[in-house]
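pinging the channel bc i need a second pair of eyes. not urgent but kinda urgent?? the chain im working w is below, pasted from the shared doc
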Amino acid sequence: MSATSTPRELSRRLLLGSFGAVGASGALAACAGSSAPPGAAPSSGAFGKGDTYTGPKVALAFWNGFTGGDGPFMKQMVEEFNKANPNVTVSMNTLQWGDYYAKVPNAVSSGAGPDVGIMHIDQLATNAARRVIVPLDEVASGLELTESDFAPVVWSAGVYQDKRYGIPLDIHPLGFYGNTAQLTKAGVDGLPTDRAGFEAAVKALQEKAGVKNPFWVTATWPAHLMFTSLIHQFGGGIYDGEGAKATFNSDAGVEAMQWLRSFIENGASPKNVSNDAQAVAFRQQKDSLTWDGIWMMNEWEKVKDLEWAAAAVPTIGDKPAVWASSHNFVVTTQATKDPNKLAAARAFISYISERSIDWAKSGQIPARNSVRESAEFKELKVQSTLAEQLPNVVFPPSVPGIGDVTAPTFETAVNEIILGKKEVKAALDEAAKKADSMLDANRKKYQA
């Protein structure tokens, strides 16, 4: 191996070796040199195929942020993989997402981090640029995974600088939830699908069902997710196609925020609704209609006597669009030091992906077509209903640092507008100026 080989070149060669692309042990040894660990150069097929691993015993560190109700679902799947693959011990470490993204880069660089991890779609480019994670094109090809196996929107979103850095596990969009008992009392047949129907339903809920505030608009989470959906519905976007400039202060952005703000102004929503307070109100049946993540479905199920249904986010603008994110499997640079770990990681990713119907039950939409098209998935009423939104999903551009721009810019502007602290256009303009500065700084920081 050349002394000037980069970590990415090394990871590519080791990945190829783990798939048996380098058939003889001597071929990989010649590349890796004498520093290769014992068993680092297995013969072709020694690691099994697909979701099995038959190489030497190996421990695999798997980190994620599944600290909520989704955690036990993933823990069970990890345990089942370990039983099916006795030569692999996958240990799962769960952190709050904020701590996770702060700790992973340093932990990986010190060799004390994850070998395999989960990252949201807007974090892939950042961690690729920081050399925390490695390209997975060979993982995808080794598992014979192509775009045709996944929802196209999530498959393409995992690419940065023409290389794939994520194998998508799921898509989790906003959903539209309604209190069906209150809607029936108001004379509304089903959840409305468009602007006229939505506004009429809110009015009927007030006048006929006696619900004082049928649609609570939060000042924080998930208001900026609602804004993202709406601005795209009105023909705009948060950023331009390259992620180089903020565009959320467009006419579409103004119209989106004015529509949200109108429910506070006309009394359909209380003022100063705090983070997730609308979800508490929905549980208490004080809020008849709410937009929230698909993952909330299991929370609603826990509430006795709450009659509810789910539907696609209504089309308030000219075209359907909905915010969503996605959990993706990643492999870290730490794992490239041992081809056994790479092979075990491949098997683990394949195993969970193929069985993501179990993950769907945690309140997720499987990214894999074969799982979504199964009879078992179609029996999951909420998940299959919200999966109909996949053609309308919007993701942020694949640009390093893009995930860090949200909170201090348009999320802050949405908060100020909802609270009545600033006028719509002024708040969006100020935030867009700050976002442009941050995007420019990110280009220099990541040399993108």
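so The chain has two domains: 7-169+326-393, 174-323+406-446. and The longest helix spans residues 424-446. — does that match what u expected or am i reading it wrong
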